[in-house]
Amino acid sequence: MPDGPIDEDLGVTIRIHKSTGIEVYMYKFEPGIYRSKLGTLLNEKIAFEAGFPVEELDRQRVMLQRKTEAFEAIEEEFSASVEEKILVEAGGYKAVRVGPATLGRYIIRGPDDNQLNEGYVNQKEARRLISKLAPEVEDAPKEPAKKSATG
């Protein structure tokens, strides 16, 4: 939510309250939130009297709020379940698989455990980057072989 005077460059709808002359502003990305030119919150009665369709904009605001909450819940659910596994490690640098192996997404972490690359790289590129950052590359332990149903 923007603070301070209205920034018209962000996209606003403006209505004028007829009896008082107050300019009532609403940012396009904040339906149902009404402000004065200085950014002071105004009530729905003034917005309605200035010509805003208050009921419709209130529904839009609630819908947007619920979408935001749902999106945040989904993001939290999936970010909490992100599986990381070290592919290779050398000299304090690590190539780490992020998510399921089938996606083949890797990040590079430095000795301070901060991510060094933007986005993801594939397995081959991850190995190459670690070999450039540290002269000796140690493969991570391999997963134990799965036993077949026949023995």
Give a written overview of the molecule.
The protein has 151 residues and is an alpha+beta fold. It has 2 domains: 8-78, no CATH class; 84-139, no CATH class. Helix content is 29%, strand content 22%. It has helices at 44-49, 54-80, 123-133; strands at residues 12-16, 23-27, 34-35, 41-42, 84-90, 93-98, 106-109, 138-139. A 4-stranded antiparallel β-sheet has the order 7-6-5-8, covered by helices on one side. Strands 1-2 form a two-stranded antiparallel ribbon. Strands 3-4 form a two-stranded antiparallel ribbon. It is elongated, with a radius of gyration of 27 Å.
Short characterization:
With 151 residues, the chain is α+β, with helices and mostly antiparallel strands. It has 3 helices and 8 strands.
List the helices and strands and how they pair.
Blueprint: E1 12-16, E2 23-27, E3 34-35, E4 41-42, H1 44-49, H2 54-80, E5 84-90, E6 93-98, E7 106-109, H3 123-133, E8 138-139
Antiparallel strand pairs: 1-2, 3-4, 5-6, 5-8, 6-7
Number of domains: 2
- Please compute the radius of gyration using only Cα atoms: 27 Å
β-strand number: 8
User: Number of helical segments?
Assistant: 3
Cα(first) to Cα(last) distance is 62 Å
Strand order of the largest sheet: 7-6-5-8
Beta-strand percent range: 15-25%
Structural class: alpha+beta
Runs with pLDDT <50, length 5+? 137-148
Silhouette: elongated
Let me know the average pLDDT.
85
List SSEs in N-to-C order.
EEEEHHEEEHE
